[in-house]
Each structure stands twice: as structure tokens, then as C-alpha cells.
Amino acid sequence: MTTPAIRATALNKTFRATDGTTVVAVEHVDLTVQPGEIVAFLGPNGAGKTTTVDMLLGLTSPTSGTIELYGATPHHAVVDGRVSAVLQTGGLLTDFTVRETIQAIAALHGRPDRVDTVIERTGLAPLTTRLVKACSGGEQQRLKFALALVPDPDLIILDEPTTGMDVAARQAFWDTMRADAETGRTIVFATHYLAEADAFADRTVLMADGRIVADGPTAEIRAAYGGRTVTLRPPSHVVDGQGIDEAWLDAVRAAVAPLGVTELEVASASLEAAFLALTSTTEAQEALR
Amino acid sequence: MSTTTTTPTTAGPTAARTTHQPLAVSYAVLDLRRQLRDKVGMFFIVALPAFLFFVFGMGDDEAYGSADVAMYVMVSMAAYGAVTATTTVAGAAATEQAMGWGRQVALTPLPALSFVLVKTAVAMSVAVVPIALIYVIGAVTGSSGNAVDWLATAAIVWLGSSLFAVYGLAMCLLFKGENAASVASGLIVILSFLGNVFTPMDGLMLDIGRLTPLYGYAGLARYPITEGHLPMDAGHDSVWLLLANVCAWTVIFAALAVWGLRRGRERV
Predict the structure, then answer these.
(1) Which of A188, A192, B19, B115 has the most CB atoms within 10 Å of its CB?
(2) Of A16, A87, A110, the CB nearest to B23
(3) A22 pLDDT above the threshold of 60
(4) Is the Cβ of A72 closer than 8 Å to some Cβ of chain B?
């Protein structure tokens, strides 16, 4: 057995709000990620993704539960440079240049030798002398990704890495990521863009209200929770300006037998349907039925 | 692998990684260069006190204590510049933390305490700039005093300015936001007037001023020259009063900084 990249057991995190009430951010999260996996953490805002990421990185301590990264504490894994991250909020000094930012973080890692490598890997070479404040949101995210690559980590955790990027920048970012993943790095990314999980992750972990509500291969999640959609084209004589003839529709509902249907399309539901079904409340799901 | 290795190591995916020591000095140099490039900040830290020295006392060779008026003003302005420097750098450090750079640094092997030491070193290095420049201007334009006056005042100005790093930190932890650092260094101007740094005060204003944070520090910095005698025959301060002022404000600023830090953490 190889040591898992991540082994989190029974994680709980509660905060005390300013008015004294207790807020449960993460509740009973169990998660094991093997080396080499690419895992998407999917969920709406407030689902507990960032809190979970912070705990995995040792930036926040869990209220209860244990976390091991490669068999060590998150702090040890970070100090050893085995784990790094692209964080969601802020995180850059605007009056450094791109190159200085990378040099500064490389100095703190004791890895000045990696500066040129990560600049090349992330395509930042044309921007090295630009001040961070003059960079676009996409360029800043790219720079944060470069910082995460500095220690040459075995596991990289990305929290909403494409926030603030336009479609082209998002595409370019994932192209860079895909190229990097081929080197065998373990990648865990939090996102609320379903398409990103769909296109990039082998495995999807769905979070809602601080809990993991589904965990499995991305394709299976989509299939198992999204159901199937059947699209029918009715014969023309039942369609008029008012829509489809009610009686005919009743007949369709009543019978499984073919009723002059000339075209039948069966499509698997989008991950979006699975997402909505799993993250909406039980009452809302009942209402949908 | 290295030719000096005596025990064979097994390679593989679980092989131990080489540990790399953080290069805190390289980081400090980059950070210092960034601070010195900040034109607006450096204007208030270096150019303004140098200009005030030029206006208020440069070349005034009237005897004063063991030196002359020019040197008295020179020490005061160097103190103002140094304090603005430490306030600005420490305040900016607090703001950087709030903006998330601290989280970025937390993902490196550098221990938190070392980061505080790096920031302190940067603040104290920036403080050297106005002191050095104003003392050089003073020397060139004929401020006169004995060797002890020159060395002791410079040392007190420099070391004492660290108190205002705590002030800058406290202000920016308590009043968050991008311009907290400018507010903190702006308040230094007012506190400098009240602290008898710019124009000599007497009467009620002087009594009020004695309670303000720059008074004790500036008085101590000039003590080698004045031995506590105030300009315009406004009276005399014992060294104990000046020390008590500095100690009291150190406790107050430190308490405010700790309070601000706790408050910031609770918010999460």
C-alpha cells in the first residue's frame, strides 16, 4: 500500500460568529486521495470548500478530526515542500514585479534555483518585469500558480483557481494545468464551475452545507445522480400554435408503446443536474418531483 | 547524487525529499528594495523631514547645550523621519497580512517568528535612511557637537523608533483597510507637534504634550545635547519622566496590537 496523499478522518470545523452563535462550516468529512489522482471539490459558495482546503493546508485547525498528508501533519508536508496551494483570497503584493514575487517566495522555500523553471512552466516569461498591480486577474492567478509550483510539490491544492478569468484565460489556465498533471502530480481543486470538474477531474467530491454528499468518478456521479433525459419529437398533427395536444401527451404518459414518434434522443444528464439535485435542500427536491 | 554520500539511498516515489533552508536574508533584501521604491512613502520618510530640517534650523549655530540649535533640530527631524519609517513599514506589514500575503508566506517553511524578525529588520533598515541622510546634511552644513552628541543621539533615534513599529502595527490591526498605514503615519505629524519635535512649546500645550507618545522618545534622543533643558526656557525634564513616557506608551501600543491581533483572528 502506498501512503495516501490525503487522509482526512471525521473532520469537523465550527466557528463562533460575532453574535455568539456557533456556525458549523464543515461536518464529518472523510476524504482519502491517492497519489496521482485529480480530484474536483465541487459545491456552491458556503459549502465548506475553502474551510476544508484551509484545514488540509494547516492554515486552520479542525475543531475535531485528523488530517495526514503523505503520513505527516499538514504543517510538516508544507515545510517539506510536498504540498502547496493556489489560495482563493488575495495573496499577492501589488508593488512587487512578477519576477520579484516568485523570487521572494522561492527565497522562503530556499529554492532560488526554481525561479526560471516555474516562470517558463507557467508562461509568465513575457511578464517578468511587470508590477503585479498591472497584471490582469488571469495573470495574477497564473502567478499564484507559479508560486505554488516553486517547491515542486507532490500535491497541489487549488481553491477556485480560475475566479476572475475570462473564458480564454480559463482555457489557457487549464491547458497549463493539464500539461502539469501529466508529470504525475496529485491535484485537488475546489470550484463551483461544473464544466471544470467535468472536463478535468477523474473524481468529483460534491460538498453542500459542510458535508460531502457524493464522492466518486466524475462520470458516475453524473450518471448516478443526474438520471436520464428522454427527448421526444411528436408527430406534427398533434402540434399546433397552442403547443402539444394534451390528449396526445396523456396518451404518451399512459403508454410505453410507440405513438408515431419519429425521433428519439436519450441523453445523459449534465453534471449540473446532479449538482442541483444533490446540493439543493430536500424540500426543494420534493418540489421538483 | 552527491559523491560525498556514504550511505546508499533508495530512490522512489516515497524517498525522503531534500530539505531546503529558507533564505530569509534574500527575502528581506527584496522586501527592502520594494519599500525603498515606494515614492510617496519615501517622500514622507526622507524628503519631508530633510526639508523641515532645512526650514527650521539648518546652519543655526547659536549654542545650545553641548551642541548648537542646528544639531538640536537635526536630531528632532531625524527622529520624525525614523518614526515615520517604522510606522509605515510595520503598518504596511499588517495590511499585507490582511490582504492575504501572510497566507502565502504561511505555505512556505519560514517560521512565523522569523517572518516577524524579517519585517522588523526591514523596518529598522528603512529607518536608517532618513537618519543617515539628515545627519550627513547636518554634518555638511555645519551642525556642531561633540562625538558623543553625534553617536548617542543617532543610536537613540534609531533604536527608539522601534517603539513606533509597534504603534504602526497596532493602528493597522485595529483600523483595517488599505489606507490604515497612511492614517497612522499622518497621525505621526500631529503627534510630532504635540511631542515637541517640530516647534518648541511652552505652558499648557507643553504640559499636554508631555503625555503624548513622541515626547519621551524625542526628549531622550536630544538628552545627550540638552540634558533635559527645554528650548525657550520652558523648563526641564528629568530623564525618568522621559523614560516613563516611553515605557508607558510601549505598554499601551503593545496591548493595542495584541488586542487587534486577537480581534482579527476571531473574525476568521
Answers:
(1) A188
(2) A110
(3) yes
(4) no
8 Å CB contact between A69 and A33: no
Which residue of chain A comes nearest to B100, CA vs CA?
Answer: A91
Q: Which candidate in B105, B108, B110, B178 is best for mutational testing of the A interface (most A CBs within 10 A)?
A: B108
| Type of residue at A141 | Q
**For residue A225, what pLDDT band results from cuts at 50, 70 and 90?**
low
The Cα angle at residue A105 between residues A101 and A110, in degrees rounded to 5: 140
Q: Pick from A240, A235, A224: which is nearest to A274 by CA?
A: A224
pLDDT score, position A191: 86
Structure confidence at residue B264 as a pLDDT band (50, 70, 90): low
**A79–B contact, CB cutoff 8 A:** yes
Report the distance separating Cα A100 and Cα A139, nearest Å. 15
For residues B144 and B61, the answer to whether their CB atoms sit within 8 Å is yes
At A229, which amino acid appears?
T
Q: Residue A16 — φ and ψ, nearest 5°?
A: -95, 120
* Residues of A in Cβ contact (< 8 Å) with B103: 59, 87, 89-91
Rounded to 10 deg, the angle between the A98-109 and A137-149 helix axes is 20
Nearest CA to A205 out of A34, A10, A38 is that of: A38
Point out the residue among A18, A90, A107 whose CB comes nearest to the CB of B99: A90
**Chain B nearest C-alpha distance from A270 (Å):** 35
| Cell numbers describing residue A206 | 460534491
Nearest to A232, CA basis, from A254, A262, A212, A211: A262
A141/A159 Cα distance (integer angstroms): 11
A80-100 pLDDT, tens digit each: 999 999 988 768 999 999 999
Average pLDDT of B38-65? 87
pLDDT tens column, B191-204: 999 999 988 888 89
- Would you say B158 and B135 are in contact if contact means Cβ atoms under 8 Å apart? no
Could you tell me how many CB contacts below 8 A there are between chain A and chain B?
Answer: 96
Can you list the domains of chain A with their CATH numbers? Answer: 35-58+73-217 (3.40.50.300), 224-288 (no CATH)
Choose the closest CB to A111 out of B20, B24, B34. B20
Question: In this prediction, does ipTM exceed 0.85?
Answer: no
